[in-house]
Amino acid sequence: MTEAGSTEGGAPTGRAARELLARADGLLEAARGVLADHTRAVGAVRTALDPLLDALVRKELSAIPVSRLKDVTEGRLRLGAVEQAGFTTVEQVYGAGRYELRQIPGVGAQTADQTLAAAGQIAHAVRDTVALRIDMDAPDDATTALVTALYRLVEAGPDVRRAVDGARRLATGLEPLLAAAGPARGRLRMVFTRREARARVLEAVASVRADVADAVERGLPPLFAQVSVDLLRDPGSEVAAWVDFELRSAEYYSLLAEMSGTGPDRDAAEGFLPSGIADRVRGLRLDDARLRVSLRGYQSFGARFALAQKRVILGDEMGLGKTVQAIAALAHLAARGETHFLVVCPASVLINWTREVRARSTLRPLPVHGPQRQEAFAEWRESGGVALTTFDALHTLPRAGESGVRPGMLVVDEAHYVKNPATRRARAVSGWSEGTEHVLFLTGTPMENRVEEFRSLVRHLQPELAPSVSTTHGVAGSHAFRRAVAPAYLRRNQQDVLTELPALVQVDEWEEFSEADQRAYHEAVAAGHFMRMRRAAYAHPATSAKLNRLRELIAEADDNGLKVVVFSYFREVLDTVRQSLGEGVFGPLSGSVPAARRQELIDGFAATDGHAVLLSQIQAGGIGLNMQAASVVILCEPQIKPTMEHQAVARAHRMGQIRTVQVHRLLATDSVDQRMLDILARKERLFDAYARRSDVAETTPDAVDVSDGSLARRIVEEEQQRLAAVADAASPEPSRSDTAGRTRGLPFGSGASPA
């Protein structure tokens, strides 16, 4: 052995060993520094958060009568003396000390302790349920301190979790190894170390070398340095912290839920899956090395569900981040060596997918669309990445078997587009899904129509499961249905997992027809023209009752600096609204507007300082586009499909929204609007039973759908009969016109186009 160093038993010795141990000392110090910086940052958040949570708990306790303390002790607690002393709520008891209670005549030490313990148990239970909402429109010192403290952790981003996890593992493993390798730091110590002890020292040195090499390979030294800097970074000013909160509120709330322990109920976050499947999903560790975003607990579970079950439908309600869960699954597979991925989606969200993949991961998005799609596909086949294509373009590309490449995962967004197996888009998707190990369907409304259509989605994924999804399960109740599809289906709702989401206030704005409105409506009914009936309220803008109310709502929003999205099924109605509002209105978004231009309009709307108005056809804006800059949503008329309204509202009321969302639905009394709501009420309840809440008792799934044509025909017939009866009552002579029979030739298609 020379002083320059050599190896003995595979371990460096001499100078090489000393240099290695010195390097390991520095790495251990950096790991400890990250842990200390993170502990300080978390401590600052808790210092600001705890008083706010305590205030929420006390507010809840103040509404609980003191008599409920008996429930905690199963009636054994004597509260007569406490109540006589003026304690009426649990909050008053919780805020009292043992000494104060002991001063009450008839209250001994045991009663005082039991009373305080019971109040503490209730307070603990309440603390698990309260959710803090930060109101940026009314900031105070306490919430400003919290936002400022959270800023450091948010600014450091998802790297913090990786750095802290790496630092903990390194500190735990490296510290005892360095102690064991201590004699190798000096020549004389090694010379006088006995052979057996020397062997243990060299073994420890070899382990240190392996740990240091692994840390370097994982990029931990520069990661520790960067995260330590980020965790010490101040926002610069309180205003800067609030601005950052407005831009990234979802990340702030995600940290709050994690640190306060007030996240969603685990069963709800896991979609009420059977325990066997849930346990298997929990056992999979998600590799986030190629992810650039921190996932919420339910999002991590969703990504792991897709990976563990391999071929599934993720049916989360709008606004819960299905896209980022899919990207997390792709990133996991990429970290494990997969190179090619394929995403199929509507053209309207292709740009959004491109932006999300680039922003949320280190994966390379490659749009395969338009005139150059064959060249782009060839590039993807050679170089890999995430190929993004549309349903209409997919069938023009070589099939998986023909292309010579199998994607590591196929993701199909808005998968209900392929519910009909006879369509060209469904056949194209099937061609790629066959033989692909991991397939993920994303859709917020897989149960919108008949069970058979849902079954067709399952048939793409797990054909052996499809026969078990039958109307029999629907008759047996929704729980039976959920059990049948659990291996391939996961769904969570906003109210279950987004505890911080601001309130959604829905208001039906009922208006009386003006005389001109009434005439236009009667003419449409007499002609048996359903679509003209739906837009008759806007036929005469100068006297339109709905349009007048819409202007009032927008004026009120303008006064409060709020952004507004106006939805209608009809382009003609949106043109009328635009002319009525004048200049400065964004849109309308419609199916004829290219996807890139749609995103530009939404970006411009979001970037406007203060009030702005965006007009959109509900079909174009209700799918795949994020409009959370808006806090007021106006629906110009009710929709045939309840889920169309759900999707449109969810564009604004979704993760990242920071203000209460007001939804105003403009309705005309004694009209097609009222008939539609009456008929669709039952359809929506059935939809909720199978795709939204899954807790409504037995019914038949075949009743979930009411076809557009049959609904229109029924409403026209009812309105013709109603107006004929009104005319009969108003006239002494029989004047009923024979119009009821016209609905047999109902011009549902003629003039029914939304364009």
UniProtKB/TrEMBL annotation:
Pfam families: Helicase_C, SNF2-rel_dom. Residues 549-705 form the Helicase C-terminal domain. CDD domains: DEXHc_Snf, SF2_C_SNF. Residues 303-464 form the Helicase ATP-binding domain. It comes from the Bacteria. Residues 723-755 are annotated as: Disordered. PROSITE patterns: HELICASE_ATP_BIND_1 (PS51192), HELICASE_CTER (PS51194). SUPFAM superfamilies: P-loop containing nucleoside triphosphate hydrolases. One of its GO terms (molecular function) is helicase activity. The keyword Metal-binding does not apply. Keywords: ATP-binding, Helicase, Hydrolase, Nucleotide-binding. This is DEAD/DEAH box helicase. It comes from Streptomyces poriferorum.
